[in-house]
Amino acid sequence: MMAFGLIALIAGAASALMFASIVSGALISLVLVCLAPLPLMLVAIAWGPLCGALGGLAATLVIGVALSTPLALGYGLAIALPAWWLGHLAMLGRPLADGSVDPDPASLQVEWYPLGRVLLWIAALAALLTAGSLFSLGSDASTISDAMRRGFARVLTLMGETNVTENDPRVGLMVAVTPVLVAASQMATLTLNLWLAAKVAAVSGRLHRPWPDLSRTNLPPMTLVALCVALAFSFFGGMTGILAIVVTTVLMVAYALVGLAVLHTITHGLASRAFWLAAAYVIIFMFSVSLVLLTILGLADAVFGFRERFLRNRQPPPLPTS
User: Fold this and answer.
1) 9 belongs to a structural domain
2) What is the span of the domain harbouring residue 12?
3) Where are the transmembrane segments (predicted)?
4) How many domains, in total, are found in the chain?
5) How far apart are alpha carbons 229 and 248 in whole angstroms?
6) In whole angstroms, how far apart are CA 267 and each of 218, 238, 297?
7) Euclidean distance between CA atoms 9 and 12, whole angstroms
8) Residue 83 forms part of a structural domain
9) 8 near 58, Cβ under 8 Å?
10) 269 φ, ψ to 5°?
């Protein structure tokens, strides 16, 4: 029990230090803040959700004492809570009996929580975190927009030699794209942290489940309906339109990740598979517009089932029965 508590405290201390590095103002602190959920996710996966919860609680208390109560509250809601919940979902499973009346526990198989639903939870958390950051600027669309305009005008003024007003076109563009960029970055950060935590746990032998087949990730069918509804509401004005844009963004990023899964599936068996996948990832990192193509690929797979058809065509013909 002492070792269990010590592991939780170490993970909480590491996460708290990574989060508190933002007060230094160094550029590397942005990376550390993005990776702050990683220690908590790792212990939640490797030692159980209770360990992750204790680590998150300890980190929240440390930040509250060392920095401030508002920062501690923000850390607990934006980092500790999502890290604990996603680590819990990653290891969530239920036993499946083989149909016998009194099955042997050794013969029980485990049905793990579907990856598509985990991805949907990541999208939901990313949308909530983005909405929370926007509401921290104000309670209505005009107040939020004015706060962002003042902030971006000040930043552009500090970066240049001339005074930039709030009516500058560059400020208007930054205000328009900020909800999209924040939502997409939240989605990418949570996904990357969960993947890294699971990979570290697997390498260290603490992942108490088989490594999932990421190329078979499928979002629930109703996700496509939710995306269409959010896309329709994104043309509205006010907070309704802003929140709809946030939801549309996180769901489109989710389908872009499904598009990556499709890409991994259809390149399976190619002699030059490593080259094509490496080239695809380089293009994605260099040209963000390629994410649109991945999103289209993910949406097309959801509608037409490309992967299922591809896998059926790769199956060998049945053996003759006589």
Assistant:
1) yes
2) 1-92
3) 59-85, 118-139, 173-198, 218-236, 243-263, 275-304
4) 1
5) 9
6) 18, 44, 14
7) 5
8) yes
9) yes
10) 95, -10
Vertex 247 angle, CA 86 and 88, to 5°: 5
pLDDT tens string 220-275 = 999 999 999 999 999 998 899 999 999 999 999 999 999 998 888 888 777 788 88
Look up residue 96 and give its DSSP letter. E
Q: What is the model's pTM?
A: 0.90
**Distance between CA 97 and CA 273 in Å, rounded?**
38
pLDDT digits (tens, 9 = 90+) for 162-188: 788 888 888 889 999 999 999 999 999
| 148-to-17, 71, 113, 117, 173 alpha-carbon distances in Å | 28, 20, 39, 33, 11
Q: Is residue 2 part of a domain?
A: yes
Could you give the CA distance from residue 65 to residue 8 in angstroms, rounded to a whole number? 18
- Assigned domain for 65 exists: yes
Residues 221, 235: Cα–Cα separation, whole Å: 24
Residues in the chain: 322
